[in-house]
Amino acid sequence: MSKRRRDDIQLDLPPTKRLSHRFHTLAGDSELWKRQYYSQWVRPRARRLANVTRSSLPPRVEYTPKVSTWFDHSHLAEEGKATNWKGQYRLRHNWSTGVCRVTEVEFPRPPAPPVLVKLCAGVVFTADQAHGLRAWCAKDPAYCLASIPFPKEIDETAVCPTALAVSQLDDEQEIVVGFDDGHFNRYVFDMETSRLYLQSSHIGFKDGAITAVALSSPYLLIVSQHKSLSLYNLRVSSHVSGNIDESKNLRKLASLNAANMVAPMTLSLRTSGLEIVATIVYSFYHIGCGWSLGIQELRFNPDGEQVESRLASTVDSQYGTTQPRGRTSSRIRRHSTGTDASDGHITAAPVAPSIMHPHPPTSMSYSHPYLLTSHADNTLTMYLLVSDSRRLYVRGGQRLWGHTSSVSAVQVTNRGKAVSVSSRGDEIRIWELEPAVRSLGSRQLLQEDNSIQVNPENKDRDESEFDSAPQSLRGDMSDSGLDGALDDVSVMHGCVGFDEERVLLLREKTVGTQLLECYDFT
């Protein structure tokens, strides 16, 4: 029997299982779904990555039941943990087609500034002045797992949170909240007991609010409104409920000042070998090609000593040229010449840029090596940041089409999976960027069908059910914080985040209430 015929029979099993006990058992056979999962998702990606890296696959790669040998699937190979392969196949299929279910949670009287939200390992964390730090179950966003108030100032008013970051540890999650008075708190969420603990409180800056935070335990990077940057080693240890320590288990590794960072900006913190790599991406205006991105990469050894500082920009990529080999930093330079990355020879550069941005990006996201920006002209721009022991440069640049209105928020992972959202929040698209890597820097375009629009299957029904509900029921739902209605949206606050199973968005309705939406692909 041919492979195509065998796959067709397997995909036809779910409808027929209602008619036969034999087919019902066969349709639930985990091994069948495991083989189909490998054939549909694992094998094609391995072949695609081999083409990108110009490496060769073995002439004949047989299916193996050992998931630990599958590329990038170690999370499904844990000892003693059974995998529901039918569910895994359904999850990947729903992502590829944009099929999901949406759940909405409304904050009736939103504080100013807006609620800060982060998603990590199936838990949604929210921070606001009125309610403090709260943890919610992503599968049921109406259920609050834990909460803890923020400390109050001398006049009995709670401090206002301005930045939020979350990092996953073994059996707990570490949360850092930055405030408008320049200090930050460290919290721990115990996943077994579903409790939040205040780990410690520290003064980050004495003269300005903390505006951005990047956390990769045990390292923390914070930025103030005056463009001051500080890098810390948190040295995570056991926690005691209510115990506040101003200095224990905290070490400042570096403190820097920036001069030309313009919003929007994004931070990244990761480890590479024994080095700590902190990356700041910001926007600036270039006379030749309009708004561009500047990248500064700081490398530190484990003792906190700065090993290297590198600079790069997207200007060369916007002109269709590539960073010269051997250069470890770059400055904006005149485009009378360019460099070919294949042989390092000087070649004539285009007179006009191939990528021109007359307006600053609406948002940006960087997860090494992918750098993605969104724009008001309905497009996204993707770059690949190359960083090794010798140099830092931006490889190519690719415009992405697919949105029908202005794009206001974007998020990307280090696997090249991205989610973008329109300014009104009514159009959400999922992108797989790995296939576009080969076309970076060339005239080949990434076609529209490489992105999928999210289409919640229950959205229309939820709206009609809410519209037909009695007025008293509507009031009860609003008072409890739950609301099935979708009023006109005036502001899209951004793509909060996404994981393997769901996407979370935070947006504001015309009446002033904020809406947290969870799109579940399971």
From TrEMBL:
Residues 311-327 have a biased composition (Polar residues). Transmembrane segments: none annotated. PROSITE patterns: WD_REPEATS_2. InterPro entries: F-box-like_dom_sf (IPR036047), WD40/YVTN_repeat-like_dom_sf (IPR015943), WD40_repeat_dom_sf (IPR036322), WD40_rpt (IPR001680). Gene3D superfamilies: YVTN repeat-like/Quinoprotein amine dehydrogenase (2.130.10.10). Keywords: WD repeat. It holds the Pfam family Beta-prop_pof12. It comes from the Eukaryota. Residues 311-346, 450-480 are annotated as: Disordered. WD repeats lie at residues 400-434. This is F-box protein pof12. The lineage of its organism: Eukaryota, Fungi, Dikarya, Ascomycota, Pezizomycotina.
